[in-house]
């Protein structure tokens, strides 16, 4: 039986908390944000992040495999296994890019369900859509170009929302988390997969050295954009650790937040419920 699928994709404007951009909202004009290690006007960050992903979109998947030695597939598989989705459910993958999570969720909800793949970047969405078609998944996927901070879906539309390696790129993480909470039905869950803080000091040291020296060089050689991958490494180091992320989720109204450390805490899956 198809449940809620049509309503899930009703565009919502009434619930956007603030449709003013940082350029026009006087309260936000002096706001700053980190773009990697650099502090920039908050209003500029989305454009700068957009440029990074436009530049690397065609090589994004290959780089993920090379940088993580394929481990990103296991992290995503584990995250998807925690969705509790059933056939006929509705799920949303935010900052979904090339669609790795959306593809897994689409298989769980089946032909009667629906998955929305949302991303702010047209180039990444295009890669995601092509991969979905190649995987034979067409009927139960919808695509939306939208900002995680102001999701264009109705309140309570989804049984599960995921965001994998996307949150650290967003300018206002709390706004994005609140937006994801808004579109979850009561009892729905958020799966937040993101780089985090390695649990062992020795692992942190090795990982630091590897990520700072190898990843930008690899990005230069394979994706032709060393600066983009330097930003990605810097953004990982600036991202809140497990505890700070859990507190942020609780602050915006998620309940019973659980943390799963993966690969020794290099990555963490936070699961929060919307009651
Ligand atoms: N989720 C995919 C994965 O795990 O492979 C892609 C992750 S990629 C590192 C980050 C994605 O976040 C990019 O596709 C980028 O376009 C998207 N993104 C960045 N800022 C965003 C925003 N404010 N709203 C929605 N998507 C955003």
Helix content: 40-55%
Mean pLDDT: 91
**Percent range for β-strand residues:** 15-25%
- Major β-sheet, in short? 7 strands, mixed
**How large, in whole angstroms, is the Cα Rg?**
18 Å
Distance between the termini: 24 Å
Residue windows where pLDDT falls under 50 for at least 5 positions? 13-20
Strand arrangement, largest sheet? Answer: 5-4-3-6-7-9-8
The total count of strands amounts to 9
Global geometry: globular
Secondary-structure class:
alpha/beta
How many separate helices? 10
Write a structural description.
The chain has 275 residues and is an alpha/beta fold. Helices cover 43% and strands 21% of the residues. The chain is built from 10 helices and 9 strands. The strands form 2 sheets. The protein has a 7-stranded mixed beta sheet with strand order 5-4-3-6-7-9-8, sandwiched between helices. The chain has a two-stranded antiparallel ribbon with strand order 1-2. A hairpin with a 2-residue loop joins strand 1 (32-35) and strand 2. Helix 3 packs antiparallel against helix 8, helix 4 (71-81) runs parallel beside helix 5 and helix 8 (201-223) runs antiparallel to helix 9. It starts with a helix and ends with a strand. The structure holds S-adenosylmethionine. Residues 46, 49, 53, 95-98, 100-101, 119-121, 124, 147-149, 164-166, 169-170 line the site of S-adenosylmethionine.
């Amino acid at each position: 039986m198809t449940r809620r699928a049509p309503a899930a994709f009703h565009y919502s404007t009434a619930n956007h908390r603030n449709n003013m951009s940082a350029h026009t909202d006087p309260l936000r004009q002096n706001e700053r944000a980190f773009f990697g290690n650099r502090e920039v006007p908050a209003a500029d960050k989305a454009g700068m992040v957009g440029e990074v992903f436009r530049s690397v979109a065609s090589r994004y998947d290959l780089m993920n495999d090379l940088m993580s030695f394929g481990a990103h597939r296991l992290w995503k598989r584990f995250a998807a296994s925690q969705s509790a989705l059933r056939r006929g459910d509705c799920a949303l993958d935010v900052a979904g890019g090339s669609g790795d999570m959306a593809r897994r969720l689409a298989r769980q909800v089946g032909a009667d369900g629906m998955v929305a793949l949302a991303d702010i970047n047209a180039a990444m969405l295009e890669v995601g859509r092509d991969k979905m078609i190649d995987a034979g998944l067409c009927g139960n996927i919808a695509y939306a170009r939208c900002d995680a901070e102001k999701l264009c879906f109705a309140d309570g539309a989804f049984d599960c929302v995921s965001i994998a390696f996307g949150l650290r790129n967003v300018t206002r993480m709390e706004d994005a988390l609140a937006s994801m909470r808004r579109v979850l039905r009561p009892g729905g869950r958020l799966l937040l997969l993101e780089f985090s803080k390695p649990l062992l000091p020795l692992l942190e040291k090795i990982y630091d050295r590897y990520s700072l020296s190898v990843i930008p060089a690899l990005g230069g050689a394979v994706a032709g954009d060393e600066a983009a991958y330097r930003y990605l490494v810097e953004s990982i180091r600036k991202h809140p650790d497990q505890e700070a992320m859990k507190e942020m989720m609780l602050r915006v109204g998620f309940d019973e937040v659980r943390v799963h450390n993966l690969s020794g805490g290099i990555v963490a899956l936070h699961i929060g419920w919307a009651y």
